[in-house]
Amino acid sequence: MNNFGTRELDVVVIGAGQAGLSAAYHLRRAGLGPDRDFVVLDHAPRPGGAWQFRWPSLTYGKVHGMHSLPGMELTDADGSRPSSEVIGAYFDAYELRFGLRVHRPVEVSAVRDGAGGRLLVETSEGTYAPRALINATGTWDRPFWPRYPGQETFRGRQLHTASYPGPEEFTGLRVVVVGGGASGTQHLMEIAEVAAETYWVTRRPPVFREGPFGEEAGRAAVAMVEDRVRSGLPPQSVVSVTGLPLNDAVRRAREQGILDRLPMFERITPDGVSWPDGRVVEADVILWATGFRAAVEHLAPLKLREPGGGIRVEDTRAVRDPRVHLVGYGPSASTIGANRAGRAAVRSVTRLLERVPV
Predict the structure, then answer these.
(1) CA 308 centroid distance within chain
(2) Which of 266, 295, 297 is nearest to 279 (CA)?
(3) What is the pTM of this model?
(4) Contacts 24+ apart (CB under 8 A), 308-313
(5) Are 118 and 8 in contact (CB under 8 A)?
(6) How is 54-90 classified by DSSP, letter by letter?
(7) Which pLDDT tens digit goes with each residue over 243-274?
(8) Which pLDDT band, with edges at 50, 70 and 90, does 217 fall under?
């Protein structure tokens, strides 16, 4: 790793997942050169974005839609292989094919306002001073852990989706799965095959979606998330407003009683969880499948947050600082949305660079 003082260039891209690679691809198409005009920084140890951290039992065949990156299709993928391997290899090949020269592992500690209209991006390999920033840090690094009374007294194991190891470690155990999203149901259906007992707990009754999810429904879901972002509220995931797809595996799990949902418990006890009506469940493990939050703490010095707690974004541009673009944030947090956001961000950045004197 090359350490330096402060290096000036046009654009810094933070994150090399789907959104970051899409942005880097479009920067190259716009005539900007990697390590000359722009740089891509990624804190992960290898290519693959957040996919490289997914649990081994999440095979590629179980992935709910993976759109190819721009300019290179993902073809002939083995659905029985772990998605971490399939997508990791695909991202690796993509970076090599387009010569994106991703710097990794590089930690970004802060982004600040700099001199002469530039930003200062402080990293573990030195400080960059770009004219524009494309932030593509996703959510994987910020797992959300709800807090409940008695949580610190639980004598069993608590873990989050971010460190879910696969079902084998739960063999013969009593497991409470918390969360009504896709990860929660996937974990539950796997664990139920080996666990002594499983319980599914969600804050709201889950909504199962019948039939295909068409373009009109997709646009409506994205619009709901986009409205929150435009209002300066923390984004919800697109998945959170689409409902759970009712496929054959989910139907079987419902028939078998695996997906019988319980309302949210009131407190955690040393031996399990309890409800206001006196019901108690004993458990060895609580698995929090409670989602993630946007990993944007490094942007805090720029004071981009609105009173509602989110960063207000129009298209991909941060309203409070037009030099900063967020991709894979809010409405672009799906694989197809990340692709489109990368292209949109680069269009906006190139217009900005044309107006900024060298």
Answers:
(1) 21
(2) 266
(3) 0.88
(4) 308/231, 308/232, 308/233, 308/234, 309/232, 309/233, 309/234, 310/228, 310/229, 310/231, 310/232, 310/233, 310/234, 310/235, 311/229, 311/232, 312/229, 312/230, 312/231, 312/232, 313/229, 313/230
(5) yes
(6) S-TT-BGGGSS--PPPTTS---S--TTSBHHHHHHHH
(7) 787 888 889 999 999 999 999 999 999 999 99
(8) low
115 CB-contact burial (10 Å; exposed 0-12 / middle 13-18 / buried 19+): exposed
Cβ atoms within 10 Å of 224's Cβ, excluding its own: 15
How far apart CA 154 and CA 147 sit, in angstroms, is 13
Quote the CA–CA distance of 168 and 45 in Å, as a whole number. Answer: 26
65-89 residue pLDDT tens: 678 899 999 888 888 999 999 999 9
Burial code (b: 16+ CB inside 10 Å, e: under 16) for 37-48 equals: bbbbbbbbeebb
The DSSP bridge pattern shows strands 285-288 and 313-314 to be: unpaired
CA atoms within 13 A on the CB side of 46: 11
In the block, residue with structure tokens 């207000």: 312
- Tell me the longest C-alpha to C-alpha distance in the chain: 69
